[in-house]
Amino acid sequence: MARCEVCGNDYDKPIEITVAGAHHVFDSFECAIHAIAPRCEHCGCAVIGHGTEADGHFFCCAHCASEKGFAQMTDRVDQPAHA
């Protein structure tokens, strides 16, 4: 059994994750996200998808990046012209 480092639950099917050389043990993805997911620098939400990064700053989406002055970030690109 292994004890979750977030909630303390002693669980027989732990999730073990190594991030930047640091080993972590959790009883659920929820606890893993709470502990190690990056946070958006604008809204503070946990970034559990790809997110976006600009100049070493991490955001959940292009809107949040633009709110912090990174207007070059976009959520979409125009569709290519059909031949």
Describe this structure in words.
This is Rieske Fe-S protein. With 83 residues, the chain is of the alpha+beta class. It folds into two domains: 1-36, no CATH class; 38-76, no CATH class. It contains two helices and six strands; from the N terminus they run ββββαββα. It has helices spanning 29-36, 62-67; strands spanning 2-3, 10-11, 15-19, 22-26, 52-54, 57-59. The strands form three sheets. It has a two-stranded antiparallel ribbon. Strands 3-4 form a two-stranded antiparallel sheet. The longest helix is centred in the middle third of the chain and has 8 residues, at 29-36. The model has no long low-confidence stretch (mean pLDDT 90).
Chart the SSEs and their pairings.
Blueprint: E1 2-3, E2 10-11, E3 15-19, E4 22-26, H1 29-36, E5 52-54, E6 57-59, H2 62-67
Protein name: Rieske Fe-S protein
Low-confidence stretches: none
What is the tally of beta strands? 6
Secondary structure category: alpha+beta
The biggest beta sheet reads: 2 strands, antiparallel
Tally of separate domains:
2
Elements, N to C (H/E): EEEEHEEH
Quick one: overall form? elongated
Q: How far is the N terminus from the C terminus?
A: 61 Å
Provide the β-strand percentage band: 15-25%
Protein name: Rieske Fe-S protein
